[in-house]
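Support case: user asked for a sample of complex input and structure output to validate their parser. Sending the pair below.
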Amino acid sequence: MNQNTIQKIGFGFLSFSVIATISFLFIIIFFIAARGIRVISWEFLTAGPRDGMTAGGVAPAIVGTFYLTLGAIIFALPLGIACAIYLCEYSPKGAVVNIIRLSINNLAGVPSVVFGLFGLAVFVKFFNFGASILSGSLSLGILVLPLIISATQEALLAIPHSIREASMALGATKWQTIKKIVLPAAVPGILTGTILSIGRVAGETAPILFTAAAFYLKGYPKSVFSEVMALPYHIYALMTEGVYPEKQTAIAYGCSFILLVLVLLVSGLAIFIRQRQRSYYHG
Amino acid sequence: MDNLPIKMRAHGVDFFYGQHHALKNINLDIAKNHVTAIIGPSGCGKSTFIRLLNRMNEMVPNTTLTGKIYLDCLDILSPCIDPAEVRRRVGMVFQKPNPFPKNIFENISYGLEVNGIKNKQLIEDRVVESLKKSAIWDEVKDRLHDSALRLSGGQQQRLCIARCLAIQPEVLLFDEPCASLDPISTRKIEELILELKKDYTIAIVTHNMQQAARISDYTGFFLLGDLIEFDKTEKIFKAPHDSRTEDYITGRFG
Ligand SMILES: Nc1ncnc2c1ncn2[C@@H]1O[C@H](COP(=O)(O)OP(=O)(O)OP(=O)(O)O)[C@@H](O)[C@H]1O
Ligand SMILES: [Mg+2]
């Protein structure tokens, strides 16, 4: 076979892979949207469930997901950023740091249900927070820590060494340099990572399964020690429990659609911010 | 040297990157209010040398430095000296312009703020003054709040000089400041350096022999970590002592 034919076959295979991947994405979106959009109504977005989960809305689950996500980010963001700054800027290079990096990467690979079990043992039982927003947020927070750390590290590493030197050469301390030069420049990158992790947190079921989520609650959570409903768990519950599968399935698609729209919006925001960062750096 | 006041003095300086002996027993005096050029082939230790003068090299891990470096009578390597204090008095302009990703005004005011100056009026005056001294004021006076990254390379380099001047150092170190600039920007920076020498003591690393000849009063020739020859620029270029210096400046190697 001549080289041009081989090249054509190669490129053909590559473009097929891209098309296949994009098709999956669109099929999922289309599939969920086609089934989910039918049940979306003002009531669906603003009211609680009625008639044994076969009618009414999912507002408490939307609110619950919001609280859990917010709690997870409030916990994980400062911790993750601080961790990344230390690893990138302060820690002496060497074996210990490499082991720490490796552990953080491994943390990212731990199955999410393990975080659920861990949360149950530690936050629910040991600290006695019960099944609550607090326990669920902390479990989710630990799950996204590695994501936030690596996003922040990447953002920090992308800041050129030359401007750190420029700052130090003016008599700034390392701390001043990080606070006033490096971090502000890294903010867009850190934000992108954070926003992506919001998407991740909002959609996770397993970590909140035993630590926060309730199948059905009257009204909205009153404090961080309340149990909550959450969209992903609500979908799971609708599909596995109850006695009216057809009605429940329709509602589950409605929930999926909301979740999908939320995550897409959030990722869209991340892309927007990244774009702005690029244009800033290139004048 | 002809009994000129000495601003900085390197005395028996040896420097190692790990095992690599980058500078070997360097003795060099930098005369006050004069321009001292450092020349030599790539990798001979020019940058390493001037980065010792404001203690920038200690940020590189795993290095060893012996010998003494003085700023006036101050032993800047003494353990009780804060490196930030040395860097305030000995400013540095780098090979590639490296403005902060901030606006033009903030680029200059940053150095003042980190050094504890809070008075807004004073900061503003200093920003304007240093932009004027760096011959860039006319080009930026209407866009002080634009991103510094939108300036041309030559303008960025003059902005970096202004940034240095704002904190009123005594010595200015230039590491190939024109290496990434066109001839017109280069000319502007050279004129600026000649202007600045009235108020500052200047050391400049350059690969450009004509540049060294045009702007410097003294020239040191480095080769593989040794200071081969150090003398008046005129002498180095007209009648060098060492044949290796002659070979280098006539372009026979390097
Ligand atoms: N951070 C570093 N770690 C290890 N070795 C280094 C480091 N920086 C420089 N060196 C070595 O020290 C020697 C001197 O380097 P230096 O940068 O001072 O050369 P230079 O004269 O400025 O060269 P150039 O004209 O190319 O800028 C070189 O052999 C270089 O490889
Ligand atoms: Mg160099």
